[in-house]
Amino acid sequence: MEPITYEPIGEIRSPFEDPSEVPVDPDEPSGAAGRVELEPEYEPGLDGLDGFSHVTILAHLHRSPADTLRAHPPFAEGLEVGVFATASPNRPNPIAQTVVRLEAIEGSTLHVDGLDLLDGTPVLDLKPFAPKPSLLEELETGWIGEHLDQEY
């Protein structure tokens, strides 16, 4: 298979300089405000995004070691699962998907809240967060729901 390459469209500006500073509890949003700074040529692509409360960011985890297929979720003591059953940043292809609250758009900069990415993280793409209602009705959260003791 031929290698696939992507060019970042911008980068994250967040208060997190080190991976150990990034919050990992899925039950508690980070509350970290920051920015998604896109390259100016992508500003026309933001048209219409201001009507959404949340945005999905796809990013390259540029400081992820990507050296294992097993993970130990930090909020589920003693549990070990496959990396594909977690949001661990340690992945074969270090790509992050995270949802943040969209506070404002100024030019090619998005002001967001709830960041869980390192400062300088390359952004690959943005999408409006709009879950399909039919999926919410049949959503199962596996081990995460069991360890958080709640339903989503």
From TrEMBL:
NCBIfam families: tRNA_TsaA. The keyword Methyltransferase applies. InterPro entries: TrmO-like_N, YaeB-like, YaeB-like_sf, YaeB_N_sf. One of its GO terms (molecular function) is methyltransferase activity. Residues 18-28 have a biased composition (Acidic residues). Keywords: Methyltransferase, S-adenosyl-L-methionine, Transferase. Residues 6-138 form the TsaA-like domain. GO terms for biological process: methylation. This is tRNA (Thr-GGU) A37 N-methylase. It comes from the Archaea. Belongs to the tRNA methyltransferase O family. Pfam families: TrmO_N. Residues 1-34 are annotated as: Disordered. The keyword RNA-binding does not apply. SUPFAM superfamilies: YaeB-like (SSF118196).
